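hi! just following up on the protien thing from before. the input was this:
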Amino acid sequence: MARERLKTDLWVRAYLRRLELANIPGYVTRRGQPDLGAVMVKCATLDGNARLWARQTDLMTGTSGWQVLAEGPEPDVDASAAKQRGFDPDLWLIEIESREGRTLLDEDGLSD
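and the predicted 3d structure came back as:
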């Protein structure tokens, strides 16, 4: 039996709630396709730097996980996110602020 994939808008709402419970400010800055849109997460560390995360699938194993797409000065990370949005108009972008760089993406409960 095929496993149903969680709708993106539901996943985003759950992620934002988890961030709120952890006292990590998070915002949807680009709303994508509600059912199947991909998600990127930008984490600003409030020192002028940021990291951009996206879920990537290993084609050999079929497993997926969050990978850093870009990191460095925040304007450079923003440019990378804009470039990705140009390739995929259905993409969601969530921005969070965490001095420690904490995203919760590597913690249990955020699989599709």
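The chain has a mean pLDDT of 90.
The helical segments are 8-21, 74-87.
cheers
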